[in-house]
Predict the 3D structure of the following.
Amino acid sequence: MKEMGALDWVVFALLVVGALNWGLVGLANINVVELILGSIPILLRLVYVLVGVAGLYKIYKVLMAK
């Protein structure tokens, strides 16, 4: 198994945050990201975009793995 670089760790962290947040939204209607960053809409949107980009990056890495 290939060692994870810094970008891979950042992607992993973003995907964990996104997965836990959506799990809480589905189970208890609690959006932790919005609770923390709701007063700063641009940061809220940035986190969502970064989680989405991290997901696309991970899909790319999985499909291109050899």
In short: Residues 35 and 44 are 10 Å apart (CA to CA). The radius of gyration is 14 Å. The first helix runs from residue 6 to 28. The helical segments are 6-28, 32-37, 41-64.
